Amino acid sequence: QDHDLYSVWLLAYNSFVLTGAPLKQDSHPMPPLLQKLAEAVAFYQNGIYSGPATQSLEQLLGLRDESALAAAYLLVARGHFLAGQGELAESLERFDRAFELASKSPLFAARIYHDAASYLLQAGFEKAIDYLEQAHALLNGTSFVKMKATLSLDLGIACQSFALSSRARLLKAIDAYQRALLYFRKENHPAQYGLAQMNLGIVYMSMPMNEEAERVRPAIAVQALREALKVFDRERDELMWSSATLNLANALQHVPSTHNKDNLIEAVSLYQEILAVRRQEDDALAFARVHANLGNALAHLGAFAQARQSLEAARAIFEEEGEGDSADAVLTIMREMEEARK
Questions:
Q1: How many CA atoms lie within 13 A of 129 on its CB side?
Q2: What is the signed CA dihedral for 150, 151, 152, 154, rounded to 10 degrees?
Q3: 208: exposed, middle or buried (C-beta count within 10 Å: 0-12, 13-18, 19+)?
Q4: φ, ψ of residue 100 in degrees (nearest 5)
Q5: Spatial separation of the C-alpha atoms in residues 159 and 151, rounded to whole Å
Q6: CA torsion, points 102, 104, 108, 114, in degrees to nearest 10?
Q7: How many CB atoms lie within 10 A of CB 64?
Q8: pLDDT per residue over 66-78, tens digit each?
Q9: Which of 7-16, 135-144, 182-191 has the lowest mean pLDDT?
């Protein structure tokens, strides 16, 4: 009889997970494990955690004998809830214990570390890289190719975010983006494809060119950024489109070429496109940087009057925003431009 009753509750729980159909308590209360799982599912569906606010780790681990994976799932839900409350250390403790319980399921364990890494990355902790690398290692030899590609993309973002001037970190980011692009194609995963290509282009432009053979990197960056713009739409993906367009324009100013004038003309056109959609009130410093870069490109083309207008606009905004160093850099460009004009 107890087995039949549990089967009824299990069917109701599965229906709740799949359809959101409400769970009705009757004279036979739901088994504790299913009750806790239902609370966790409700949290994922509605963003509301109805479990005890002081629910202890020991209470959850008490479910270990019944189902290690179920206990891990509950710990992960609690981890997400705590992270949402700003309790990152407490959240990571739940994720780590959940990982221990889920070790027999490589995919679930990898997802746990992926979730933890996402919070670490948002909070600016380099430990995100370790979590992502461990998650990726768990899937070696498995057929979860999309998950591996997702982890590679996020690993590239993490390595790039914490690279500073580390050549090794930048090379690791390049490798991660290239692995992600083995799976993410513009035909079926345009958003991921565009993000990987754009970031790849930015990393290539960030790499110090120590050897003659590395002089091709700006050209590779231009190619990657052009690929990103094949999937980012100016209206639909304004933020990503603006970022890719700006970085392409910057790259065109620096890529060694026998067509420098053509590159500068294209860069000017791209900067003007960005200024057509960006507003100073949205992000004054970003707006000023576009004007500064536009002015620099115009100056190299010999269009000094137009260049001065953009450079003056950039300098005024930088001074207004208290960015003295940036304002001084613009003044340096203006002085050099005046010397060239003479």
A1: 16
A2: 90
A3: exposed
A4: -60, -40
A5: 12
A6: 80
A7: 13
A8: 578 888 888 888 8
A9: 7-16
